[in-house]
User: Fold these one by one.
Assistant:
Number 1:
Amino acid sequence: MLAWVLIAYGLAGFVLVAGGSVIGLDVAARVERLATSADGALASASRSTRAAAGAFTNVDQSLAEAQTSADAAAALARDASGTLASLGLAMELSIFGAQPLLPLAAEFDASSSQATALAETLDRVASSLGDTRPDVDRIGAELEELSDELDSLRGGADDDASTPPLRPFVILLLAWLLVPAAGALIGGVAMLRWSTGPESTA
């Protein structure tokens, strides 16, 4: 009875190993392909996110330069407004009771008002740029963090890192399972022959 149990165990082991070799190797190949594809997708997403973060950093620098330029232009516009206002007052010069330059004074006053309005507009633009910069900084920082998280999902692997092969591991596992099955089958057959040997000789 023990011999037949060992033989049945060995045959069942061979059947399981055969089925595992067909199914396990196919599953391992699929897992390898999926892992490689997922790693490539994560790597591409990480690179794209990091590039976007760099772009927002460049945008922040551009906004800072634009804000500085707007502030400088606003200051120049205010200076021009003051100069034009002074010229307008100078054009009100009276010569023997006559003011021949008075029409020019009105034009200088109008130009001074326009320069003042331009300075106010530039101030609003500079203020708007200053309010936008913190949002840009926050978005850039969040994108940088997202890129780091994507890299951590990849396990910190390099772009040229390959997926660990699973099929050799499956083959070794099947071979390890095959050893006791073969041993049981051989042992069962040997025990069966040994138990039937004396009867046949008798």
Number 2:
Amino acid sequence: MLEQDHSGSEKQKPMVVFAGRSNVGKSSVMRALTGRKLKVGKRPGTTRWEKSVDLGAVLFVDTPGFGHMAGQGKKAIERAKTALVQKLEAWSSRLILAVLIIDISLFRELVERWENKGEIPIDVEFYTFLSEISQHVIVVANKIDKLPSGNRTGEIDYLQGKLPHKGQAPVIVPLSAKRGINILELKREIEKILQTEGVQIPIW
């Protein structure tokens, strides 16, 4: 596993970037996909800098979470968010795919909270941003196991309805990284996009 700055040939490799609010399970999703051990914690903001996994023809990059971080004040959180946006913009020429991870068990509650304040929900705002800098975006609805089975389809439909798009509907993969639910489906979606872009399938 490589951390922070990439050196040598890695600088030229295309990238798949994993982004999302703090504590949605970005590192857990990457670990479930790649089998590589990344630091996973219950405290929001466990990942404080980007970490990358070299999968041959492509780099998978785990980025710091935006939003609440344990032990950090509002100004520090805003600085971290700005730094992440600037980093992603700098990577845009190498960015083949952005994977936005959300906690589907909390998504509706958070959206209603933001909308009641007359603000755009942060997950929705970040989806728009990622769609602007990357041709391909996959939304991972993580922690699906926390929802009653009868509510899952409704919550996925709610998520889809909140994501702005023109023409083609957003690609959403319901997932539980912790329980391994739909990991293969996410791999197939990633592989499909990489093939479209002429990038070799990763060495999982």
Number 3:
Amino acid sequence: MARIAQLVVGGQPTAWSSIGLTFVDGICSVGDFSLRLDDSLEPGISSWTLSRCISDGDIDGISTNHADLTQPATPDSNTLDIVGVDHVVVFTNDLERTSSDVARVTGEPLRRIREAGDGVRQGFHRLGSVIVEIVEQKRVERTFLWGFVLTVNNLDEIVRHMGPDVLSPPRDAVQPGRRIAAFRGGVGLGTAVALMTPERQ
């Protein structure tokens, strides 16, 4: 099965370390997935690296690298008890076009479509342990990587520790029985990052 091996993010390491993510030689491992920080880039997600795909090339204009990456060992954060990455969010103005390109490159089909209301639709692909959530909004000018959600064991503890200026109050997630809290824009990550409770077993 195709999988997401890495996201490349821009910005300064201080913003990421302020939320408990430690980078060693520019790499932060989260489960079977890694973030690579390039501080020469503007804040935000600039590209992703996929492995085990059936085709090379970019996905609907998203800068896409193809490589089998070995996850380096990095120190665990004392702040975030991360289980892994739950999903990566892609914004587009055409769900069918972007989804078709994901399937063409990765070989992984569209699992379902959800009508989110107000003209917003969501489509879902699974790449390894990570869900790719494609969000269609007609006002979007180009397809881009918008953000990602980390699964953590201690959401309430993290929210209390970081405070309301850093994290939003936890709310019910779309996934039944789970809750989610998002980092505020003022943290300076330049991309949307949220924390979510694990799936109930």
Number 4:
Amino acid sequence: MWRRLLPVAFAGVCLTALASISAEGQTSRAGKIASATKAAPASISRNATVKDWPGKDGKMVVLREGSNGWVCLPSNPPTKYKKNDAMCLDAQWQEWLASAFENRPPRITQVGYAYMLTADEWGSNTDPMGAKEPTPDNQWHKQGPHVMVLYPDAKTLTGVPTRPSTLGPYVMMAGTPHAHVMWPVR
């Protein structure tokens, strides 16, 4: 009887170990770096600084120093509407993110780019930082993989659709200082 049960017990122990490794990989330093660097092409992410999202003290922790001026952030823990929100940001997008955390308009001086190539989340097109669930007027939509583009002059966004679409670019946060163009990618 033990000869028959031993392989089953061994398989159960192995599956439990793999599950704990998988869960740890999402929160370990190496897991966070892996999550963050998948958000952009390797040509950018391989030399990017990787930071973790702010903790209770409001400060980001550097997980890995980089050399190309880009910063990549890992996905936050999954929620009902979000599975992956890892991103890589150029200097203009780093300013944009800092301004959002500080509740001030961003100081954008040139075109900026951010990658979210592993994005798999639902969110508001009008209030992506604050809305937690759909409402009749927040343009709740599925955000798959995309590139985000900032422009220093809001007039540049004139004529770009403001309703979310997977068929082409659209403006997120239209009419606010944080408006930017979302470019869905496959």
